[in-house]
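> forwarded from #structure-qc
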């Protein structure tokens, strides 16, 4: 398997400015070259944050928020490289598949954590919703009755999380989401792109459970490295 070479990332950045080349390594051609695509994870594992928010449903991630996964998540989310939704959706589908391994045959409802409205407007697209839809389509092709339901809405302004500790994040987020719409039919999996402290996922879970919806697990592409 090819090693992902960080020294090629600056080339990737240059290629992206020019609007061509692999988002992972910069080689001219497709938005994700065959080597980088082969380097993407195909499995997932439990990724409990440390400290773990009390009561958090099992969080599964495809890998660490590093290297290729980090580059691709950011290119898709911050730079609107929409073509990456396919390969990243495949990764997310594999995470959900792993999470549901002991629960075969049941319908699954993917519930994305809500993007803040201003963020979506600013970026002009909803990256997480796009990923969730790709993942659900992929799961359906593999015989899993998967749907996406935007069950959660953000109800309050949340201050920038980046400088807050895990405890501050949890307090900052508590009560900031609400469930809407019909109760989902099937196993509910909360999906997000990156798991950091787990506060966002925990708040999503709280909002669902407050309305009587049980959450089977959390599926994310990547988890930051501060693990237990
Ligand atoms: Zn590449």
């Amino acid at each position: 398997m090819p090693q992902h070479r960080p020294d090629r990332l600056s080339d990737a950045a240059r290629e992206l400015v020019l609007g061509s080349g692999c988002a992972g390594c910069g080689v001219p051609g497709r938005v994700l070259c065959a080597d980088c695509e082969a380097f993407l994870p195909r499995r997932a594992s439990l990724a409990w944050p440390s400290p773990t928010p009390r009561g958090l449903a099992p969080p599964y991630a495809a890998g660490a928020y590093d290297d290729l996964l980090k580059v691709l998540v950011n290119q898709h989310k911050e730079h609107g490289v929409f073509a990456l939704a396919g390969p990243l959706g495949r990764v997310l589908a594999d995470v959900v598949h792993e999470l549901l391994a002991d629960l075969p045959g049941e319908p699954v409802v993917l519930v994305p954590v809500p993007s803040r409205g201003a963020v979506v407007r600013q970026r002009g697209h909803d990256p997480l919703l796009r990923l969730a839809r790709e993942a659900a389509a992929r799961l359906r092709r593999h015989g899993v009755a998967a749907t996406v339901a935007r069950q959660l809405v953000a109800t309050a302004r949340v201050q920038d999380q980046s400088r807050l500790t895990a405890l501050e994040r949890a307090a900052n987020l508590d009560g900031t989401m609400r469930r809407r719409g019909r109760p989902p039919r099937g196993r509910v999996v909360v999906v997000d792109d990156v798991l950091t402290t787990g506060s966002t996922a925990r708040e999503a879970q709280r909002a669902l459970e407050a309305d009587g919806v049980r959450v089977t697990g959390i599926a994310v592409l990547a988890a930051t490295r501060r693990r237990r």
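QC bot note: Strands lie at 45-46, 59-64, 108-112, 146-148, 152-154, 177-179, 187-195, 215-223. DSSP finds eight helices and eight strands in the chain.
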